Amino acid sequence: MVRHARAREELRRFLDIGAVQVAELDLDGEEAVLRPGPGSPPVTHGEVFVLVRWGGRPVGTLLGQVPEGADARAVLVARARAECAPAVAEEPGEPPFTSVVVATRERAGQLARALDSLLAQDHPRFEIVVVDNAPVTSETRELVERKYAERVRYVCEPVPGLAGAHNAGLDAVRGEVVAFTDDDVVADPRWLTELTAPFAADARLGCSTGLILPARLTTPAQVLLESHGGFAKGFTPRTYDPAHPPGDEPLFPFTAGRFGSGANMAFRTAVLREVGGFDPATGAGTAARGGDDLYGFVRVLAQGHRLRYTPSALVWHHHRETWRDLETQAYGYGAGLTAYLTAVLVNRPALLPAFLARLPRGLAHARALTAVRATDGADVGGTPGDHDVRTHPWPRRLSRLQRRGMVYGPVGYLKARRALRATVRGAR
Fold first, then answer.
1. What spatial distance separates the first Cα and last Cα of the chain, rounded to whole Å?
2. pLDDT tens-digit series, residues 2-17
3. What backbone phi and psi angles, to 5 degrees, belong to 223?
4. How far apart are CA 52 and CA 357, in angstroms?
5. Which residues contact 185 (CB under 8 A, 6 or more apart)?
6. Nearest to residue 32, comparing CAs of 63, 73, 83, 69?
7. Which residues are bridge partners to 36 per DSSP?
8. Which residues pair with 98 in a beta bridge?
9. Digit-coded pLDDT (tens) for 58-112
């Protein structure tokens, strides 16, 4: 009875979460420019999640409250100038020829929106490859052929799984660098240049990741997820070097979730091919549920290459919209976390001693991760300017699902490996 009552109360709190507007504010010069986020209406009164830019570069976010009848631009400019400092200008060098891979499955409407933003990139030399993963209809192929055939190449990967789709894209690309994003993002016009230029400046760089912010915060699920961190990793650039492990990351490199996410990542093509690409038994669409991006990060770092987080490389992500979506995401996140660790150790057993040495701290980290997110009223938003959506209590059910997913992850990975072997045998 107590658990049911608590669940009803959590659901009531969830449904009471109100929408938040999304906007961008560029403070460059005396005339600051306020504009709505991608696909959002003009800003009015109420709560507003604002990306603050200086000279076009993202420097922080804030949650502003615009009183009814007030000038939204004046209110938000005053807050932003008081709280957000200009970024140190780092002009990127000439980016290398880059391939962009977008894996998709039966979401032609979202894909078209993503492709439109990718074709508007200011990068001087790039190609786009769409991988249609285990399609049920011809809708995706027809969209590419009808609207984008001159600029976009189409690849079909019949075996379901995000990692396998990414590997199919990796096999097809011609670029020195290969970038990956999802079909539910809108890429900032400078995204690809900012994400890939670091490869020209650092010969040891194997991977780069960027900033992911919410495109909309209209449903309780979207607001709740973003209030607990979303996919953002802050606004401070950072390079992770396995030759000099970071002192503040005792679990390095196994806490790969800190490095970035699959919706905004790029690899030196030769390096990713050298490590065998992504493990096809990981990722959405497999029994492992996720972890394909984390696997890629760790494999590249384990080969001695650096990883660079670049917050000026921005994509806007359309978060999932419903309570059921959040349940699926929480379970999948936990499963993907332990599935990718299993995949790393299966494919590179030499990492086992380092993993075992970090295991006690890793277990403590896993407990703390779910415990903090389960704490009613906890503020887990990070430092000012990094993340400022009002924190709502994280439902205990979602934390329990994440923990169950962590227990299931290794089993899911082994199931996915067996399924792949059966698929390969069946195709012979």
1. 55
2. 566 666 777 678 878 9
3. -70, -45
4. 41
5. 114, 117, 212, 215, 263, 264, 315, 316, 317, 318
6. 73
7. 23
8. 126, 177
9. 999 999 999 999 999 999 999 999 998 887 667 777 999 999 999 999 999 999 9
* DSSP three-state, residue 64: strand
State how far Cα 417 lies from the chain centre.
25
What DSSP line would sit under 103-152, residue for residue? EESS-HHHHHHHHHHHHT---SSEEEEEEEES-SSSHHHHHIIIIITTTE
C-alpha distance from residue 152 to each of 100, 102, 148, 348 (Å): 10, 10, 6, 35
Element (H, E) at 23: strand 21-26
Question: Rounded distance, CA 142 to CA 138, Å?
Answer: 6
What angle do the packed helices 396-427 and 352-374 form, to 10 degrees? 140
* C-alpha distances in Å from residue 161, one per residue of 132, 230, 282, 287, 324: 11, 23, 7, 9, 21
pTM: 0.92
* Residue 393 DSSP symbol: P
Are 351 and 345 in contact by the 8 Å Cβ rule? The answer is yes
